[in-house]
Amino acid sequence: MDKSPDAFRTISEVADDLDLPQHVLRFWETRFTQIKPMKRGGGRRYYRPDDVDLLKGIRTLLYDQGYTIKGVQKLLKQNGNKFVIAIGVGDMDAVEALSASMAEDAKPAARAPAPEDDQLVGKARLPSTRRFFGLGGDAGKAEGEAGEAVTGTGISRDDRALLQEALYDLLECKRLLDQVR
């Protein structure tokens, strides 16, 4: 029996709909404060239709567009939930309209992004094969892709920061798993 489009969904239904494991949805709840499923007795999660659309948008940005978690967090912070929901449901007219209205609002306060920004909003990162250690490019160069200096270990500053971020994420996953045990 199919549910109404307005019905709340369990985590297993949402996971099946998005083709993701349930633990990924739980992890995203820790990374994106905008995801707030209703919780019932025993911690059972129920996702509202807007929550499901937001998750679809996050999934599209992470898996299809190549954004990092940090980049999606910046998009949500700067553009709001409606923008990411519009991406999730595939409403490109709404995305363009929201982008245009936000660009008009931001004109007086526009600033150039700092070079140390990890993820520029609106641009996906390079594929991972080209980000780490010169793979997919000139591996023998003493500089990274953007001409950044390479440390004594042969790893550029940006690659080192990416590795540290990945290590932090892994440690956070371990902490969450230890809590469950």
Structure notes:
It is a single chain. The chain has helices spanning 11-18, 22-31, 49-64, 69-79, 81-89, 92-106, 128-131, 157-180; strands at 9-10, 38-39, 45-47. By secondary structure, it is mainly alpha-helical. It folds into two domains: 1-108 and 116-122, Multidrug-efflux Transporter Regulator, Chain: A, Domain 2; 126-181, no CATH class. The chain has a three-stranded antiparallel sheet. A hairpin with a 5-residue loop joins strand 2 (38-39) and strand 3 (45-47). Helix 3 packs across helix 5 and helix 5 (81-89) runs antiparallel to helix 6. The longest helix has 24 residues, at 157-180. Mean pLDDT is 74; it is low at 123-145.
In short:
By secondary structure, this protein is mainly alpha-helical.
CATH class (first level) name of the largest domain:
Mainly Alpha
N-to-C CA distance: 35 Å
The residue ranges in which pLDDT falls below 50 over 5 or more consecutive positions are 123-145
Helical content band? 40-55%
Order of helices and strands: EHHEEHHHHHH
What is the tally of beta strands?
3
* Number of helices, where a helix is a run of at least 4 consecutive DSSP H or I residues: 8
Q: Bin the strand percentage.
A: under 5%
Largest sheet features: 3 strands, antiparallel
Strand pairing plus helix content: what structural class? Answer: mainly alpha
Q: Label the overall shape.
A: flat
Number of structurally distinct domains: 2
List the helices and strands and how they pair.
Layout: E1 9-10, H1 11-18, H2 22-31, E2 38-39, E3 45-47, H3 49-64, H4 69-79, H5 81-89, H6 92-106, H7 128-131, H8 157-180
Antiparallel strand pairs: 1-3, 2-3
Protein name: MerR family transcriptional regulator
Pfam families: MerR_1
Domain HTH merR-type: 10-78
